[in-house]
């Protein structure tokens, strides 16, 4: 785990998680209902939700322009569909 500013001991990460995770869980639950939720629903949210379904891309190949700028979530979805990634 990379160091966060001012967190020096491993137990401090646990303490931070104990404080933050209830808010993270509440926000994620809110995002499950974008029409009624209070958290602003953005592109990264629906991309992550799509990727969590482990989608199957029915294609012989996928062309990806600017691959170096690919979102890690999209990269993971592509990798799940590729026998041998060519990037």
Explain this structure.
- With 87 residues, the protein is mainly alpha-helical.
- The chain has helices spanning 10-31, 43-52, 72-81.
- The two termini are 26 Å apart.
Largest sheet: none
Task: Give the CA-CA distance, first to last residue.
Answer: 26 Å
Order of SSEs, N→C?
HHH
- Overall geometry comes to extended
The number of helical runs is 3
Provide the low-confidence segments as ranges. none
Q: Portion of residues in helices?
A: 40-55%
Bin the strand percentage: under 5%
* Radius of gyration computed on alpha carbons: 17 Å
Which key phrases capture this entry?
3 helices, 0% strand, mainly alpha, 87 residues, extended
Kindly summarize this structure in a few lines.
This protein is mostly helical and 87 residues long. The chain has helices at 10-31, 43-52, 72-81.
């Amino acid at each position: 785990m990379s160091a966060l500013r001012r967190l020096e001991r491993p137990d401090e990460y646990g303490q931070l998680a104990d404080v933050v995770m209830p808010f993270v869980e509440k926000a994620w639950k809110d995002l499950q209902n974008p029409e009624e939720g209070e958290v602003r629903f953005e592109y990264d949210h629906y991309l992550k939700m799509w990727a969590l379904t482990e989608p199957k891309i029915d294609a012989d190949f996928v062309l990806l322009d600017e691959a170096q700028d690919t979102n890690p979530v999209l990269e993971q979805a592509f990798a799940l569909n590729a026998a041998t990634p060519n990037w």
